[in-house]
Amino acid sequence: MTSLSLKAPESVGTRDLVRMWLEAELTSDLRDLTVELDCSPLKTPTPSFFDEALKILIEERGAQRVTVSHVSPRAQLFALRSAANRDIQGKVAISDPIVVRRRAIWRLFAR
Amino acid sequence: MTGSGRLIFDRDVDPRSARQLKLRLANTDYFGLYEVACIVSCLMGAASDSHAISIEAPRDAGANNFLSRLGFDDFVREVAGLDCMLPVIGHQDVSDVLVPLNVIHSSSDLQPIQDLLETRLSGVKLAQARVALTEALWELGANVTEHAKASGVAAAVVQRANRKGEHVDLAICDAGIGLRESFLRGSRRYHPATDHEAIELAIKYLVSSSGEQGRGQGLATVIEETTGLSGQVIVRSGSGRRTLSRDYSVKDALKVAHMAASVPRVRGTVVYVRVPCG
User: Fold this and answer.
1) What is the distance between the terminal CA atoms of chain A, rounded to a whole angstrom?
2) Which of A58, A71, B42, B149, by CA, is between 20 and 30 Å from B125?
């Protein structure tokens, strides 16, 4: 299966901005493609960003699978919730999640 | 509009019925960001309806000062072509204002506001609060550009530590069609009979005036995040108002429902978010 890499811009918090970005980036048909969505540049991941991106990539353009990478635990929740709301859970995966470091908490315990 | 510690709307400032908007702020000695957002919503509505507008600036120095720091003077000049003659504030006096009153015409107007908010929030220790506020800005700003059918306004202030602790207030308001009309004009799936019912629908997860599957996450997520941080959200639209916080009791909800009929109208929708960050 061929894959396509996409890097999210820094600021696309609203549905219309997501649509403008993806329409500029994508070819019309994504059938049989796996889309690797790198969210590392994204400053403020919002529920609207993930919902609109998954809607366009999977429901409208027919991508086989979307792998969302470099997202915080909260952003993972948004992506997975949107997938569940749209009944496309099997087509959405998370890779390389950002791990919240608990060093500060351990330091407290170590005192 | 008069007040002595609390903001009270006169019946005659209802922008839907009055041909003239009189903002009588002279006796008002208290302003918070929520009150200013309600005033801004009324002002924008009156300006878009070409009503005559007169503003009596507050006599109270503190109230006057707060309006000045928020850039109310410039805002009124831009929206209504009026001069409020508020006192000139020095640059060093505006440290509590994170974002002065900023007009939102489209989603692209949110980017510079986010940049400003992020820069000014860099001193806020709680990372979760910073994330919650920028997320709220995008989601609530998007609701204005998508549903209100009118421009909106965003502003944010930080309240330094007092007996209630340090917190950041963010308000986004518009003078648009309001939540009820948005539902009635939308997918026609929902038919709220009152503004209060429309607010109750709007705050539910996955309920949207568009009626589309998967929509209706923004406001509900902002409420979830804010109340999870022990913050507060106030949603006001038309004659409805709803306050949401973690320690909001059934008694409070009943009181609000009872008071709903007596809440004065605002033009459009006001959403106010208070996030503790200290």
Assistant:
1) 52
2) A71
